[in-house]
Amino acid sequence: MSPRVIGRALTLARHAAAAHIAGYLALSVLGGLAPLAVAWLGKLVIDRLAGPVRWLDMVGLTVALAGAGVAAAVVPPAVRYVRAESDRRVNLLAVEHLYASVDRFVGLRRFEDPAFLDRLQIARASGVNSPGMVVDGGLGVLRSLLTVVGFAGALLVLGPGVTAAVLLSAAPALAAEIALSRRRAAVVAEVGQAERREMFYSTLLTSPQAAKELRLFGAGPYLWRRMLAEIRTIDGAHRRIDRRELVLQGGLAVLGAAVAGALLLWTVRAAAAGALTIGDVALVVAAVGSVQAALAGLVTEIVAVHQAALLFEHYVRVVDAGPDLPVRRTPLPVAPLRRGVEFRDVWFRYAPDQPWVLRGVDLVLPADGCTAVVGLNGAGKTTLVKLLCRLYDPTRGAVLWDGVDLRDLDPAQLRRRIRAVFQDAVPYDLTARENIAIGDLTALEHPGRIEAAARRAGVHDVLDRLPNGYDTLLTRLFFSEDDRADPSTGVVLSGGQWQRLAIARGLLLEQPDLLVLDEPSSALDAEAEHEVHTRLREHRQGRASLLISHRLGVLREADLIVVLADGRIAERGTHDELLARDDAYARLFHLQASGYRTALPEQVA
Ligand SMILES: Nc1ncnc2c1ncn2[C@@H]1O[C@H](COP(=O)(O)OP(=O)(O)OP(=O)(O)O)[C@@H](O)[C@H]1O
After folding, report:
1. Which of 447, 425, 421 has the alpha carbon at shortest distance from 434?
2. Which residue has the higher pLDDT, 529 or 140?
3. Best of 117, 383, 519, 555 to mutate for ligand 1, by most ligand atoms within 8 A of CB?
4. How does residue 488 score in pLDDT terms, banded at 50, 70 and 90?
5. Where's the ABC transporter domain (predicted)?
6. CATH no. of 3-189+231-319
7. Measured distance CA(600)–CA(334) in Å, rounded
8. Cα 327 from Cα 149, distance rounded (Å)
9. Class of domain 425-511
10. CA-angle at 271, arms to 266 and 273, nearest 5°
11. Ligand 1 touching residue 112 (CB < 6 A)
């Protein structure tokens, strides 16, 4: 249990809910001392009853006893409230820090690293609750300590032997808790992976995206059986610890009760012999129960703090991860593109143990021209785009923006000058307006800009006809507050409509310096594709654009076409030049063209 991690958790908690935690602390002190006050006042009342009763004294004592009783009754619900409120505040701040940190990652590498994703998932699921758990556990320890120390102190009045005997009576419970809590912590760590896999299966089995394929291919049972296997593994681990707990706690409870019983007998005998008062007997009885419970609670709380610290360590490591790509302390501002973007002898692989994806690519995307990249699946086209947007850095070589290495530039400014439509653009479960505005959120204030982008992508009419127009939620997963009156207004778009929406998102910025279109029209019908490409051509005029498509027909008007093969540029030239070379491009083009030529008469027939 690292004190540094616990310190971080407490600092975060203090920033989020200082006043609530102070109140929580005060109530914990009160809660820790209340049982002692009740027991002590009870002893005094009983002792007074045994002798000549002095009424004024008795009234004072009973009022104090009633007050302590009220405090003891009021403290637990008050603690629950303050604890819940401080937990909520701390959790909110922890979530804010986590997501702000994740958002600061410049590149993609961490999102594709299973070890980091695992840590991120733990941080997100449990780490954000840890500071609250550390506070709860810490104050729980304080409460228990006050109870134990308070009773030990009070019992000293009766002699050190009684104090030692009461503490000893709690020893079996204490030993049991220590043994069990170690085992419990080990079980939490042991089943963590299985729990995450189970979560994955359960999400997949109920996701609308997977529902179609799972039904059609009948793959559901295969997956839910694997999910059940994970649950069985988790249950098995918990069952083992539960059984151990049953045996250990059962046995030790008997032992603890026997020790307590022996102590009680001794106290009663001492009282009968006149060595102790009846009040002393009552105090010992109360002390045995309270000290046993407090010592067991003490161990539980220490273990809870330990576990919370372990989970919070994952959170801290995500939040402290720093930039995933090196960013200069004072990055250079990104000027408008004048000459072009250059790939200079770019080599790239996703990891040192993986094969090279790009092997010495030299390519210039001129500031006022359209460059098209062609290549078979896996040739490295999208990887080129990722390097261009600085989602990764080249392993060797450099990408230069008007001669300046992208690594020297401000990544946020760079991205404001680039717009891209990806083949795997994300369909957000948001309104149509928000889905487009993701491309430039300032457009939310300017509905005209969103509509203009939708018109350019040829999707305005579709969106305009939706039940709530641009404000229609594009999901059936849930409904928005505005749709409460009619939760059925959410709609599901077709694949091509989504793609047009993604194109609108990419075209929202009217003057990007560089427009990247990575398979932007693969889901469109032929007519729509032609229409979209005509509009895109207009939009690209006079600025740099990079076009990637497997449909070579849409690339033929590019100023330069390059063929990527085995991570190298195998051919480059205009459409006519490449056809004249009669090599890979010409072969691919004729293959596609012949497909259309032979397919058409058959279709007509
Ligand atoms: N995140 C990644 N981690 C490891 N390897 C990757 C990753 N992304 C892509 N690759 C690999 O890099 C190679 C190039 O992939 P890339 O997506 O750039 O190809 P592409 O030319 O765009 O293919 P397609 O035409 O199928 O879209 C492929 O072999 C792929 O398996």
Report:
1. 447
2. 140
3. 383
4. low
5. 341-591
6. 1.20.1560.10
7. 49
8. 54
9. alpha beta
10. 95
11. yes
Ligand 1 centroid distance, CA of 350 (Å): 9
pTM strictly above 0.80: no
- pLDDT at residue 604, rounded to an integer: 40
Closest C-alpha to ligand 1, atom 4: 350
Whose Cα sits closest to atom 27 in ligand 1? Answer: 377
Instruction: Residue count of the chain, please give it.
Output: 605
In 3D, which of 142, 133, 258 has the Cα closest to residue 188?
Answer: 133
What is d(CA 537, CA 342) in angstroms, rounded to the nearest whole number?
Answer: 22
pLDDT band at 562 (very low <50, low <70, confident <90, very high): very high
Going by CA atoms, what residue is nearest to atom 7 of ligand 1? 350
381 lines ligand 1 (CB under 6 A): yes
Q: At what angle do helices 130-156 and 160-169 cross, to 10 degrees?
A: 140
Is the CB of residue 379 below 6 angstroms from any atom belonging to ligand 1?
A: yes
Helical pair 3-50 and 130-156, crossing angle rounded to 10 deg: 30
Q: Which of ligand 1's atoms lies nearest the C-alpha of 351? A: 4
How far does residue 153's CA lie from ligand 1's centre (Å)? 71
At which residue do the structure tokens 């020297």 appear?
Answer: 408
The response to whether residue 350 sits with its C-beta less than 6 Å from ligand 1 reads yes
Phi-psi region of 245 (alpha: psi -120 to 50; beta: other; left: phi over 0): alpha
Which residue owns the Cα nearest ligand 1 atom 1?
112
Question: pLDDT digit string (tens) for 266-320?
Answer: 888 988 888 888 888 888 888 888 887 888 788 788 878 888 888 898 899 999 9
Q: Which amino acid is at 23?
A: G
Strand partners, 332: 409
Q: What pLDDT score does 33 carry?
A: 85
Domain with CATH 3.40.50.300 in the chain: 335-417+513-605, 425-511
CA 381–ligand 1 middle distance (angstroms): 8
Task: Indicate the pLDDT class of residue 603, thresholds 50, 70 and 90.
Answer: very low
Sheet arrangement for strand 370-375: 418-421, 514-518, 544-548, 370-375, 560-565, 568-573
pLDDT tens digit sequence for 38-68: 888 888 888 888 777 788 888 888 899 888 8
| Residue nearest to ligand 1 atom 6, measured at CA | 350
**Burial of residue 568, with CB atoms counted within 10 A of its CB: 0-12 exposed, 13-18 middle, 19 or more buried:** middle
**What CATH code would you report for 335-417+513-605?**
3.40.50.300
- Tokens 């596609």, residue located: 592
Q: How far, in Å, from the CA of 105 to the mean position of ligand 1?
A: 21
Best mutation site among 350, 374, 519 for ligand 1 pocket (most ligand atoms within 8 Å of CB) = 350
Q: Which is the closest atom of ligand 1 to the Cα of 550?
A: 25
Distance of CA 382 from the midpoint of ligand 1 (Å): 7
Q: What DSSP string runs through 175-199?
A: HHHHHHHHHHHHHHHHHHHHHHHHH
